Amino acid sequence: MLLASQMDVLLIKSLNEPVRLFYTELKSETFLLFSKIAKVREKL
Questions:
Q1: Is 15 strand, coil or helix?
Q2: Which superkingdom is the protein from (predicted)?
C-alpha cells in the first residue's frame, strides 16, 4: 500500500494543476465510496 501511495505522489507531482486537482478529487470520492461500502457491510 505504501508503494502505491509513493507512486501516487510521483504521479501527482508530474501532472499539471487542473489534472492534479481532478485526480485528487477523484481519489477522495473513491475513498468516500469505499468507506460507505465498508459501513454498509458492517451493518449486514
A1: coil
A2: Bacteria
| Interatomic CA distance for residues 6 and 12, integer angstroms | 10
Amino acid letter, 23: Y
Q: How many residues does the chain have?
A: 44
Q: Please write the tens of the pLDDT for every residue from 5-41.
A: 777 777 767 777 777 788 788 888 998 999 999 999 8
8 A C-beta contact, residue 12 and residue 23: yes
Grid cell at residue 35: 468507506
Instruction: Indicate the domain borders of the chain.
Output: 2-43
